[in-house]
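Format notes (please read before filing issues)

Several people have asked whether sequences and structure tokens are stored in separate files. They are not. Every record keeps both together, in the order shown below: the sequence lines, then the token lines. Line labels are part of the format and must not be stripped during preprocessing.
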Amino acid sequence: MKTKSSPEPTQLSGHFAFGKNWASYAALVGEREIEEAKKGLLKLIPAEDLQGRSFLDIGSGSGLHALAAAHLGVGRVMAVDIDPDSVDTTKTLLEHHRIAIPWRAEQMSVFELDPAKIGVFDIVYSWGVLHHTGDMWRAIEKAASLVAPNGLFAFALYRSTKMDAFWTREKRWYAHASSTSQAIARGIYLAMYRLSYAARGIDYGNYVKNYRSSRGMDFYHDVHDWLGGYPYETTLGPEVERKLATLGFKPERVFASPMTRGLLGSGCDEYAYRRRP
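Then the structure lines:
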């Protein structure tokens, strides 16, 4: 389900400061996080599809998944992000790990990417990004246009919930709130999280401790990202399949669930679609 967003999609103003969050997170990246990020990539992209291939990371964030792709054998990497802090963090991470393949990181919106200028890629990867652009379906079209024939488009999008209208208002507020107000909001959200887990007999502390096993990410940075992730749009698997079919793609690996209530938020559904030759 699409929800309306007010910022001009190609402009950083009005967007949540994702880059500052991921710059903070990058300090935590070590071998464990890299290994988990590699597992996340391999969930969507077969290992043989990575070997020697070109890889475009749209919305690189911390640069972790561009780094993981390099470790998995891609031939070259291009990483782009609209946020300059994310671009700087991506460059720092890739330089620190001295990856041997050609790579570049640029500050660019997905809407600025033009296959006539930068070419097409064997793999276009965009995890949890296109729903934050302010125009999700146009962003999907732009990203898909950069996939080479028989190439893979691997991405993740927020699943629709019955509380999307609430989360849109909350995110719009949080993205522009003071750091003190944000901290209070996080405290309330985490208290609800603990109560929800206690009611279901789940060990909250153990869940947080082991959270990095999910794509190598960090729980508290993800909470900040979730609460402030504006612009915000959601969708469901059947809508994605219809859209990608019109763009000349067929599903290869899809991990999608039905609409949820969304009391504590929405998870991401994951998709890997192959462009028809």
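For reference, the curators noted about this record: The chain has one domain: 1-277. Strands lie at 54-58, 76-81, 103-107, 121-127, 147-158, 249-255, 268-275.
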